[in-house]
Amino acid sequence: MDYTAIFDKQKKYQQIYSALPTPTKDSYQQSFDITFAHESTAMEGNTLTLLEVKLLIEDNISVGGKKLREIYEPINHNNAYQYVKRCIIEKLPLDEKLLKDIHEILMANIMSGGIYRSVDVYISGAKHTPPTPNQMYQQIKNFYADLGWKKEQLNPIELAAWTHAEFVKIHPFTDGNGRTSRLIMNYQLMASGYLPISIPLEKRLEYYEALDFYAIAGDLSKFTDLIARLEEQELDRYLAMTQSIV
To answer: CA Rg, the chain, in Å?
Structure first.
């Protein structure tokens, strides 16, 4: 895939970002935070609507008739995402401690987080079966070791896609692997000066098929293409907003 257009748009975004009014930047980020929390949790079965997630996160208003887990999931997701943003500001490396911290925040009031699984797990509808616990421990160790040289080898879009796809293939936790992988994908994008992305629910089938293709064939191209398109759409949205202000 030719990334030239995305790289050019990212440079334009970096150039005009500081000139934007603070309320504009804040409202954009707040809108994304809520959409990201909704889409990432809905991807894994949460039934709250976007408006209900907004009420929870933005207005601190609970939603009646829902299970406590469905209430905690988007709240925890938003807390984990805010943590990711703080870590980027502090220039903390994406390592095992940070990743376990993200998972622990995601699982607050649901289950014990940040603990690797000791049992086999299966992914509904996927052709790929995650590794056994013994295999998983070696693979997750290799994952952390590979993060450094992958950063040198891949461009930021490819690095974000690999980080997500490889982590979720390993599936080191009993639950919350998808949400964790989407957060660390955005960690890689934002740490490289790109905009975070959210996987729209209408792209769910393409998303899962691309991840399964990587897990089975070791080919990242389909997933990287999806991430690149979503990043470009986010950059286009941002640049259009700035042009209207100017």
So the answer is: 18
